[in-house]
Amino acid sequence: MSRSFYLRRTNWWMEELRVLLFQRKLTIEEIKILENHFPYYRHLGEKHKIQFRKKLQIVLSSKKFQGRGGITEVTSEMEILIGATLVMVTFGWSRLRLAHFHTIVIYPNTYYSTLNKVYHRGEVNPKHGLIVVSWKCFVEGLADGKDGVNLGIHEIAHALKLANQIDSDGEKEFDQQAWATYKNLAPLEIQKIISGQNRFFRESASLNEHEFFAVALESFFERPEDFQKDLPELYDSLVMLLRQNPIVLKKNQ
Fold this sequence. Notes:
Layout: H1 3-21, H2 28-37, H3 39-42, H4 46-62, E1 64-67, H5 76-89, E2 103-107, E3 111-113, E4 118-120, E5 122-125, E6 130-134, H6 135-143, H7 151-163, H8 176-195, H9 209-222, H10 224-230, H11 232-242, H12 246-251
Helix pairs in contact: 1-4, 2-5, 4-5, 5-7, 7-9, 8-11, 10-11
GO molecular function: aminopeptidase activity; metallopeptidase activity
Protein name: DgsA anti-repressor MtfA
InterPro entries: MetalloPept_cat_dom_sf (IPR024079), MtfA_fam (IPR010384), MtfA_N (IPR042252)
């Protein structure tokens, strides 16, 4: 067996051990947070809600949440809503939880990066296994669930795409055929944005393939009906890639 095989198994079982030792059970109050502030969960049927809660408990049991920049205590609301966003993006997989990204860092507002000398709303650091978000910007993304702008989805989309390139997490993300279909369509849409022919996505989606994927997932979850109507082929490719269709999930509630 190769060293990478043993590394993958070790990382996976470390995650499993954390889940077993630090099992997090959702309280009634925390489930109310989901019902009141997370539309994706609220629109699910009861069967899918049970699956969602089980997966959320695993995510909360396996991830570390750290406050920075003045956040001395990470609240239950922060953990539930950020964790729920991760569950939403990965809901099509029964066990996927982005094991490589073990820590979620929360700043109160935009934060200054000494590395590139700019302020950030969020970022993903694969080297250190971090997903970083500004809580203020995260909440603003949740406030309007139909505008296609959602920081939480955006950063977790980056993490998902990067995780697909990491073979040491013991997880299988994208089906190769589904990924190939999406990759054939994405450059065409990026060029349409640049030329002004595609006005469905905001201009930042044309910066590079990573930004396009993150912006596309924001609309996939927040504006699925419009997405399917305007860009049916691209929408269907994401349905296959993410193994879920938000429109169907909503209809089957």
